[in-house]
Amino acid sequence: MGKSRAVLRRGLVFGLRAGAIPAGACAVLWLVVMVTRYVNGPGGSTMEDPVLAAVAVLGSMAVGASIGAVVGLVLAYAPLRLVSSGPLRALVCFVLATALAFGEVVVMAVSSDGGYGPILLALLAMPFVGAVTAARSEHLAAARIGPAGTHLGRPGQCPVPPG
Predict the structure, then answer these.
(1) Which residue in 9, 48, 79, 100 has a CA-CA distance of 20 to 30 Å to 144?
(2) How many helices (H) and strands (E) does the chain have?
(3) Are 158 and 146 in contact (CB under 8 A)?
(4) Which pairs with CB-CB distance under 8 Å and at least 24 residues apart come from 148-153?
(5) Single pTM value for the model
(6) Minimal CA–CA distance to 21: which of 91, 99, 101?
(7) What is the rounded distance in angstroms from the CA atom of residue 66 to the CA atom of residue 131?
């Protein structure tokens, strides 16, 4: 049970970090729009509405956290054979994260009132979210499979012969 919790915790921390990137971008955009509005007057942007800006920031964090939690759960409870195989683990993480990244498209659609730019950007980011998750999958599952390379041999045996 301890290893499963560690994998889930690693997945959740990864998801929060991944969700902080679009949330931070939305927060900076909202700040720029607010400063521009203060200097030049209202401009008609949907980011001028604080409720929609909060939806963008908090929704992005929630999507990132859910991606990390689901990937962590899958890595914690999937068969060890799947988790210890690098290509299979990466493929599973890529597919899961890419599918769950669609939540960011929904967040951008709601927060931008259906604006094409944010929705298109979120759609284009989906494969990158999957690729980053696949690349980090070994780190996420390390609590279950051990540090890099140690799961290849028998316990206590060096995976690469000395010499």
Answers:
(1) 100
(2) 7, 0
(3) no
(4) 151/84
(5) 0.76
(6) 101
(7) 17
CB atoms within 10 A of CB 125: 16
The pLDDT of residue 152 is above 70: no
Per DSSP, the three-state class of 156 is coil
Give the pair of three-digit tokens for residue 163: 């010499």
Residue 148, C-beta contacts closer than 8 angstroms, at least 6 positions apart: 138, 142
- Which two tokens mark 123? 């759609």
Distance CA 57, CA 60 (A): 5
CA distances from 122 to 61, 62, 153, 155 (A): 14, 15, 42, 44
Which tokens go with 20? 């902080």
User: What are the C-alpha distances in Å from 33 to residues 48, 55, 60, 115, 153?
Assistant: 6, 16, 18, 16, 56
Place of tokens 């929705």: 119
* Arithmetic mean of pLDDT, 6-22: 84
